[in-house]
Amino acid sequence: MLPPAALAPVDQPPQSNTLVGLPIVAIEGILGFLSYDETSQLRLVCKRMDLVCQRMLNQGFLKVERYHNLCQKQVKAQLPRRESERRNHSLARHADILAAVETRLSLLNMTFMKYVDSNLCCFIPGKVIDEIYRVLRYVNSTRAPQRAHEVLQELRDISSMAMEYFDEKIVPILKKKLPGSDVSGRLIGAAPVPGPSAALTTMQLFSKQNPSRQEVTKLQQQVKTNGAGVTMLRREISELRTKVQEQQKQLQDQDQKLLEQTQIIGEQNARLAELERKLREVMESAVGNSSGSGSNEESPRKRRKAVESVDSPRKSKRLRNRK
């Protein structure tokens, strides 16, 4: 016969003066001074500590998502609306880093949270949460951060290794524990159905025990949430397609305007060349007229000199005769 302490549930603290004997709120307050990596390692202590650490890891991932959303809103509020002006803005690198972190959070969410929501596991890689916090605090505290690939190198490495290990080693075990995943045709946790045929319908299995109905309710809720997520994704995809079409139309209009402007510039250049040619002809004709008028003014002077030269011998003869 087991002692009463051994029969107590995991949620209730054991009757002792140790750390594990404290209420869960007190234990979470104490573990809050540790990093999430250290918290994930404390899961090996006992079942009660495992339960508390799992709660803290799950809450930590949700908190870091909210903190990232807050940082991203603050940065986007300071960025200009024009995409061309954002590239040269002082917060452009901040926005790039936060966008890369958002992508990494989405991948982690798709990898782990499906099984976390089913209460099959917790968010195991606590070191990833610590690294995300480090990147976000670095972005908030630095005016001129480094490039995104330099800041996110460590986060990409450890998150990729965590997701690969989870998919290869842990997911095959968890899939066997998912509701309705037993290949024999019964739910996990339900007693085997007697009879010659094991290929009973799922509705017959659901009507056997009450826990099966609860699992069906959970499955229906998950299907609803997944359907809502798919609907939102389709809506976003349709909006993105319309935006892409609008941008392509704007690009076509701009190309047409550019072609028209090029034709107008060519016509203006031809007109300018014609005007230069006419101006050159007018200048040449003006120079020719000025030279002709100068020669006409000099010809009467020459005539006077010739007449005077002819008359001078006559005058000299008259003077001699008078003498």
Features:
single chain; 323 residues; mainly alpha; 11 helices; disordered N terminus; FBXO28; F-box_dom; F-box only protein 28 isoform B
Overview of this structure, please?
Helix 4 runs parallel beside helix 7, helix 6 packs parallel to helix 9 and helix 7 runs antiparallel to helix 9. The protein has a domain of 113 residues. The protein is an all-alpha fold and 323 residues long. 76% of the residues lie in helices and 0% in strands. The N terminus is likely disordered. It contains 11 helices and no strands.
Low-confidence segments: 1-8, 182-211
The profile of the biggest β sheet is:
none
Query: What structural class do you assign from the helix and strand content?
Result: mainly alpha
Rg over CA atoms? 46 Å
Estimate the strand proportion: under 5%
What gap, in angstroms, lies between the N and C termini? 183 Å
| Average pLDDT over all residues | 76
> What is the tally of beta strands?
0
What percentage of residues falls in helices of 4 or more residues?
over 70%
SSE order, one letter for each helix or strand:
HHHHHHHHHHH
* Shape label: elongated
- Enumerate how many helices there are, as a single number: 11
Biased composition (Low complexity): 288-297
Protein name: F-box only protein 28 isoform B
Region (Disordered): 283-323
Domain F-box: 16-64
